[in-house]
Write the structure tokens for this entry.
Amino acid sequence: MKLPAPPADNKFRILVVEDDAIIAKLVNINLSMAGFDCRLAVTGLDGWNAFLSSDPHLVLSDIDMPGISGHELTAKIRAQSSVPIILMTAANTDDNEMQGFKSGADDYVSKPFNPKLLVTRVIANLRRVYRYDAPAAPSPMRTPAPVAPARDEATVPDGWSKCDSCGYMGPQFKFESTDSDHNRIFVCPHCKNRSLTFSLG
């Protein structure tokens, strides 16, 4: 099945399908702060059209929406793509959750939800599909890696790093570079700042 290649700039595209404007804004803000490129759709049909036009790396969708439901949208997407799909709903029942998985969803989030946990679920599903946690190949010319500060368990998943300057978060190897003397250094790929500390997974 179709699966978009990881973007070179590490701006993974997330399609958010949610008819509640407040929830959509909350999700968009938190995912954007984590370094993702978000596109919003307010109905299942809009979500389907947005999926076809934007080729997202992950879909985050409500279930109860005007037009086609999140379950129907999931089935349509899954018929032609293997991108991760996370469903959100306030109807927290076993039957609803089972129906979501049967339609092709990979994960399930009950409303109300913790935004940080939602971002972590998005990262975990992307990492599972795109193998973001693959370490950079070691080089014999490099000096031992500098000791990094402790990881922020609440916000940074294993194998990921977060820039304390701009808030960008991504795979740890994306932050690794070398200086002119071949010393291993940490540089944020987003703001290029290296005079700061990182929370490393």
Residues 133-201 form one domain.
